[in-house]
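Give me the fold.
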Amino acid sequence: MTWNWKTAYRSAYYATAPEPDDIVLDPATTALLVIDIQNTYLEAPTDPAEAALWGPFLARMRGTVIPNTAALMALCRRRGVEVLFARIACQTKDGRDRSLSQKKPGFNNLLLPKDTSASQVVPDLAPVGDEITVLKTTDSALTGTNLRLILHNLGIRTVVVAGIFTDQCVSSTVRSLADESFEVVIVDDCCAAATDALHTHELTVLNMIYGHVLRLSDVEALLPEPPSPDG
């Protein structure tokens, strides 16, 4: 079936809803937010069972998400869209400033001091120049950071979101942005969850309520070319 963002990822809530209006991406009021694509998540597990579990995720990250996000970042930079980053990183070495969810046992028990290699954005997606990064010990990039104020000061009305994990930090951030009345675009092929099933489920939940799910090719088509130097 041919991809069409206006009809894809329909939940029961929107199964019979009319197609949404066309999206307008004005570079002056649009920002790209890249969430948590950090070195720690690209490390292959040494335990065979864990390696088998995370193999498909790592394959998607290396084969799809990282190259597509790099292309999306380059597109945004060419067309005058602000590029911002959020990464999980605590201020203290022992993580005592982390939120409770990052101190509990299990997958979300993360100790990522801000200056360690593990907490940095992967090299292929590193910020350039004065691009802004916010540090968080929460799922939502708006909770506990000054990102809301930054977006307001930049005059941003629409946030294009890429990153991981679709069902965790991406979802929490998208919901927070929607609650703050930002228009949100989630880029399907620039995001990943632990499994494709979780990724698909969460995008179906988010779509048309908290934002619209597009693909890289859609964003490229919607972002206007910069004016020619010759006018």
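The mean pLDDT is 95.
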